[in-house]
């Protein structure tokens, strides 16, 4: 029987974070990128919980609640922006959206 | 208290007249020359009376402790340097103070008449009082910075008064020339002060004399001080400003550029005489430069046709005599000559001013002549001045000048060369003064008949100072000079003073006779000849040289150094900008990638380089 050790949670958290990060860097679709940002946030959340369990204090749990609230607000705003962009430019490809550069 | 009052009275006069001028000129009113002149003259007369009481007090003291000192306040304190604002009245200061205030009073009085048509009369008198205030600071100051304050102050007053009629360009240029020439000399004074403080540790005039200094320091210090004196006292190489300074009003020439300011170099040498006399190099430099100046200026004076210019070169020449005296170690004789010279040269200038005044500004001596009947008082007083400068007994110049000539031969530091310079200069002095005297007062009147008829004797305010100065030129030599300055003067000598007196009187008579022979009948007009062309040489060497240097620098240094530096730095900025520009691709994901890489790099550096538990 394998017991759930905090370090295992940390490894999982790191994997989720890296998947998210790579997604943000490599994918061009804004919707996918937004989802990957959420992945990164949740990876961090997991590590908070893991550390909280490791040190037997509740600060990590509290922070996670904050992060989830902020992430919800952020994804609402982000999705709104993406929809607004799509309406104006008919695309959600980040390479196509470079008006400020030109 | 009296010392302070001596310098405060002229300062008060300066303020009253200065404020009066400002108020009057802002309202467009004219100041009464009589009232303004009375204030200024009274301030000087009061100062003179106080100086006289101080002098009598000094006389009552025993010889060794003749010093009245007043410390007013602490002037500056910086690290090891502490300078008090103190006034010292001793026998040397006494001579100078009495001359400044006494002759100063007479010249202020004379100015009331001479400058009566002047518009900015209150400004003139405030400048004149300011000059006296600064000059008294110079001779009463107890420390080198205090002397320097006066030194710069009189330079400023001289500049302001030479350029008093500032609406004409030559006057302005003459003022600037005087100021700049003096600044060159001041450099020597400043460096001497630094050296004095570094090696003697004090700037007090009495203590610096007691300091034990190495011979090299003494020599450098003495030479620098002497260089400062060549500026202020118009010696070679910095004497060319004095003849140009005649652009100022004549009373100014008499007071500043003959009687007082130009003798401050002698004062400084006499004040520091133990240090100056400690170095043979310094002494012989002073004697040779003084002798050459006396000779060169006397030669130039023989070829001038401007009344005031002749007197100006004569002043330079007489100052050379004083430096010769200092250079052979006979400081007391030099100071004695300062006093007698102040009397007779002020007299000559004021009499010349009276002539110029009578002829409405004519200064060319070949346009004069026959004035002895028209201006009897001026003629008689000028005769006294003429006899004094020639050194005819019993006039004052006889005592002081012959003593200088005597000392150049018999003093330990004297020699035949300096004696020769002195004798030739004395003969030339007799020549050019007699030439001037004959051309102005004798022969036919060579100016317009109308001008000659209009010539009139000056008012009493101008006549009275002439009479007093003529008396002083006669009796001034009978007082002698302070004996406490005696250094290296001959004690016993096989040459009799009477022989030298006889020789110098004969020489003077010869010079005068030659002039009489040449100018009594024949008054062919001579143009002013620039004998040595010193101004031209300076113009080429310094003026043109500096111009060439500047234009060369503008051409080559500017193009090849300054512009290159700017171009290279601009190119460097351009290059680095181009290199960094590559990183700015405009894609958010690329930037994010860079951030990630940077974070990874920082972590790698911390964890691998410093170790996890390392002490960063």
| Oligomer designation | heterodimer
Query: What's the number of structural domains of chain A?
Result: 1
Largest sheet of chain A: none
Major beta sheet, strand line-up of chain B: 1-2
Which percent range describes the beta-strand content of chain A? under 5%
- What is the residue-averaged pLDDT of chain A? 89
Helix content of chain A: over 70%
| Overall SS class of chain B | mainly alpha
Distance between the termini of chain B: 72 Å
The gross shape of chain A turns out to be elongated
Would you tell me which CATH topology of chain A applies? Answer: Helix Hairpins
How is this structure best described in words?
The complex is a heterodimer of chains A (102) and B (616). Chain A is mostly helical and 102 residues long. Chain A has a single domain, classed as Helix Hairpins (Orthogonal Bundle), CATH 1.10.287. Chain A is 76% helix and 0% strand. In chain A, helix 1 runs antiparallel to helix 2 and helix 2 packs antiparallel against helix 3. The longest helix of chain A is centred in the C-terminal third of the chain and has 31 residues. The radius of gyration of chain A is 17 Å and the shape is elongated. The mean pLDDT of chain A is 89. Chain B contains 23 helices and 2 strands. The longest helix of chain B is centred in the last third of the chain and has 48 residues. Chain B has 4 domains: 142 residues, no CATH class; 383 residues, no CATH class; 44 residues; 34 residues. Chain B is globular and about 110 Å long. Chains A and B meet through helix 1 of A and helix 23 of B.
Write the layout of secondary structure elements.
The complex is a heterodimer of chains A (102) and B (616).
Chain A: H1 6-26, H2 30-55, H3 59-89
Helix pairs in contact in A: 1-2, 2-3
Chain B: H1 2-27, H2 33-60, E1 67-78, E2 81-90, H3 91-114, H4 121-140, H5 144-162, H6 169-200, H7 205-210, H8 215-232, H9 241-244, H10 250-259, H11 264-271, H12 273-276, H13 280-301, H14 307-327, H15 331-358, H16 376-390, H17 396-410, H18 416-441, H19 449-454, H20 460-475, H21 497-519, H22 534-581, H23 588-609
């Amino acid at each position: 029987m394998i017991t759930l050790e905090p370090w295992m949670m940390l490894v999982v958290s790191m994997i989720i974070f890296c998947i998210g990060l790579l997604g943000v860097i490599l994918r061009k679709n804004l919707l996918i990128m937004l989802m990957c940002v959420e992945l990164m946030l949740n990876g961090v959340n997991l590590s908070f919980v893991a550390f909280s369990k490791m040190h037997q204090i509740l600060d990590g749990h509290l922070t996670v609640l904050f992060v989830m609230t902020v992430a919800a607000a952020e994804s609402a705003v982000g999705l709104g922006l993406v929809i607004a962009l799509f309406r104006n430019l008919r695309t959600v490809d980040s390479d196509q959206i470079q008006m400020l550069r030109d | 208290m009296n010392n302070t009052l001596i310098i405060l009275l002229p300062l008060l006069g300066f303020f009253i007249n200065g404020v009066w001028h400002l108020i009057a000129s802002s309202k467009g009113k004219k100041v009464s020359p009589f009232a303004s002149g009375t204030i200024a003259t009274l301030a000087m007369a009061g100062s003179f009376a106080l100086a006289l009481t101080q002098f009598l007090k000094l006389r009552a003291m025993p010889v060794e402790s003749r010093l009245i000192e007043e410390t007013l306040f602490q002037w500056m304190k910086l690290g090891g340097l502490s300078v008090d604002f103190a006034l010292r009245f001793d026998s040397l200061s006494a001579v100078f103070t009495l001359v400044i205030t006494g002759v100063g009073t007479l010249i202020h009085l004379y100015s009331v008449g001479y400058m009566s048509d002047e518009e900015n009369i209150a400004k003139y008198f405030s400048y004149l009082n300011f000059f006296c205030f600064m000059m008294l600071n110079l001779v009463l100051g107890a420390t080198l910075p205090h002397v320097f304050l006066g030194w710069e102050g009189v330079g400023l007053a001289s500049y302001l008064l030479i350029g008093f009629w500032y609406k004409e360009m030559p006057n302005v240029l003459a003022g600037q020339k005087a100021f700049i020439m003096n600044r060159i000399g001041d450099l020597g004074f400043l460096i001497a002060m630094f050296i004095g403080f570094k090696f003697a540790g004090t700037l007090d005039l009495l203590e610096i004399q007691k300091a034990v200094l190495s011979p090299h320091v003494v020599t450098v210090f003495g030479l620098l001080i002497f260089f400062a004196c060549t500026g202020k006292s118009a010696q070679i190489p910095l004497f060319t400003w004095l003849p140009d300074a005649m652009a100022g009003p004549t009373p100014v020439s008499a007071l500043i550029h003959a009687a007082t300011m130009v003798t401050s170099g002698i004062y400084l040498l006499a004040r520091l005489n133990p240090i100056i006399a400690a170095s043979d190099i310094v002494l012989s430099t002073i004697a040779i430069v003084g002798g050459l100046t006396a000779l060169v200026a006397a030669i130039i004076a023989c070829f001038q046709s401007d009344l005031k210019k002749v007197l100006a070169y004569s002043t330079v020449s007489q100052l050379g005599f004083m430096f010769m005296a200092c250079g052979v170690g006979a400081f007391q004789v030099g100071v004695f000559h300062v006093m007698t010279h102040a009397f007779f040269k002020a007299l000559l200038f004021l009499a010349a001013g009276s002539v110029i005044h009578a002829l409405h500004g004519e200064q060319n001596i070949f346009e004069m002549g026959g004035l002895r009947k028209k201006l009897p008082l001026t003629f008689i007083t000028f005769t006294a001045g003429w006899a004094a400068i020639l050194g005819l007994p019993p006039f004052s110049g006889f005592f002081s000048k012959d003593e200088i000539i005597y000392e150049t031969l018999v003093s330990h530091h004297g020699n035949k060369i300096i004696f020769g310079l002195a004798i030739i200069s004395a003969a030339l002095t007799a020549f050019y003064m007699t030439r001037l005297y004959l051309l102005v007062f004798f022969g036919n009147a060579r100016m317009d008949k109308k001008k000659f008829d209009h010539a009139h004797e000056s008012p009493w305010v101008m006549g009275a100072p002439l009479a007093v100065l003529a008396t002083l030129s006669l009796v001034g030599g009978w007082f002698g000079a302070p004996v406490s300055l005696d250094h290296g003067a001959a004690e016993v000598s096989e040459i009799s003073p009477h022989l030298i007196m006889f020789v110098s009187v004969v020489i003077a008579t010869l010079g005068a006779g030659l002039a009489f022979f040449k100018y009594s009948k024949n008054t062919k007009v001579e143009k002013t000849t620039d004998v040595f062309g010193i101004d031209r040489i300076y113009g080429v060497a310094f003026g043109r040289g500096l111009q060439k240097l500047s234009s060369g620098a503008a051409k080559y240094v500017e193009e090849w150094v300054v512009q290159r530096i700017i171009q290279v730095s601009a190119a460097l900025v351009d290059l680095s900008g181009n290199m960094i520009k590559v990183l700015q691709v405009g894609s958010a994901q690329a930037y994010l990638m860079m951030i990630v890489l940077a974070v990874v790099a920082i972590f790698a550096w911390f964890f691998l380089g410093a170790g996890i538990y390392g002490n960063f």
